[in-house]
Specification:
Elements (H helix, E strand, L loop, with lengths): L1 E6 L5 E6 L2 H28 L5 E8 L2 E9 L2 E8 L5 H17 L7 E7 L7 E5 L2 E7 H10 L6 H12 L18
Parallel strand pairs: 5-6, 6-8
Antiparallel strand pairs: 1-2, 3-4, 4-5, 7-8
Helix pairs in contact: 1-3
Length: 185
């Protein structure tokens, strides 16, 4: 048995026992695939900022770090990017993020959605319900269209208040990185 230390989905330290280097290699590959999915989904989410949505990245809320989320006219959502496949554990984790967001914003839990977004997929939204946990699984290629199609639920005053609440203790609301252009000269 090999012992490996790291962080779980919530950023808490964990220790894993792995039976072999092959198992460790598979875990590392999954971590890399999730990082790639997160990067690709972020690019889709950045596009929402041009139409009044705010991207949340690595927002610490008590014992939970909300990895990804969006706040916009169509609602508030915690997001878990995944590399084309997902598990019930992913839904449980993003539901915990949604609950933390709801608590921090003093909103009823049902006002904050939980999304698992599949990298490179054109899968339409599919609702899932598992042991009291509700969420939506959707493909990355459908995410922007789906979020934009939601009827407005939050007015401009509410969106401003939520943005202030989330940014009250530092730079929790992340803006897209600047586009770097090669020097022409």
């Amino acid at each position: 048995m090999l012992r490996v230390a790291g962080d779980d989905e919530q950023g808490k330290p964990i220790e894993l026992e792995v039976a072999s280097l092959t198992q460790l290699s598979r875990a590392a590959a999954l971590g890399d695939a999730i990082a790639d999915a997160t990067r690709d989904v972020d690019m889709v989410l950045f596009a929402l900022e041009t139409v009044g949505w705010v991207l949340l990245r690595e927002v610490p809320l008590g014992d939970v770090v909300v990895r990804r989320g969006v706040v916009g006219p169509g609602g508030i959502f915690a997001i878990a990017p995944r590399p084309g496949r997902w598990s019930v554990e992913d839904l449980v984790a993003v539901d915990a993020d949604a609950a933390a967001l709801a608590g921090a914003l003093q909103l009823p839990r049902e006002d904050v959605g939980a999304l698992v977004v599949l990298r490179g997929s054109a899968q339409g939204p599919h609702s899932w319900h598992h042991e009291g946990i509700d969420g939506v699984v959707i493909g990355e290629n459908m995410l922007l269209e789906w979020l934009m199609s939601l009827p407005p639920r939050l007015g401009e005053d509410t969106l401003r208040r939520l943005g202030r609440d989330l940014d009250a203790e530092g730079d929790r609301v992340r803006r897209p990185p600047p586009v770097m252009r090669p020097h022409q000269g």
